[in-house]
Design brief:
188 residues; mainly alpha
Length: 188
Amino acid sequence: MSKDRSYADDEVRAIIERALKEQPASGVSHDELLAIGAGVGLSREALESAARAVTDARLTETARAQIVSRKRRCVMAHAFVYFVVNGALFAINFLTTPGQWWVLFPVVAWGIGMILHAGFGLFSRASEWTLVQEKRRLRKAANAAAPRLAEPRAGVRVAASDARREDASADDADADVAGSERGRTRRQ
C-alpha cells in the first residue's frame, strides 16, 4: 500500500517538519540529513549546499542580533551617563546659582547628540563590513568553545555503575601506589 502513495514537494516538507517536531529534541546529525536526502532522491551536493546556506543564514541572523544588542547597550550606557552627569550639573546649578540656568546649555547640546546617537544607533542597518566582522567573531568563539567542551577535566567523575566505580577506584589506588613508589625512588 505504501508503494501506491506519492507526495508533492510541499507535502514532503510538511511531513518531515511534523515528524521532526514530534521527535524528541535530539536533532538530526549531518550524516542523518544526508541519508534522508538520499532516501528522497536528493543529491549530496544539493544537500551540502542547502546546509551551508541555512547555516550561513542562521549565523547572519545571530550576528545581526548581536550587533543590534550591542548598539542598544551602547545607547543605554550613553543615556545613563547623560542623565547622571546632567542631573549632577542641575544639582550644582541649583545649589550655586539658582537664578541663572546655565545647565540648559549642556542639557540641550548633549541631548541633541543623544538623540542623534539613538537614531543612528538603533535605526540604521549594520554595514556589510560590521556583519562580516561579527560573523568572524562568532565563528572564532564557537571554534574556541568546542575543544574546551570535549577536554577531559581532572577530578571530575561521571556517575557509573558499581562495577565501573570499583574498577576506577582500583585504578586510582594503583596509580597512588605507583606515584608513592616514584616519590620514594626520587628521594633516595
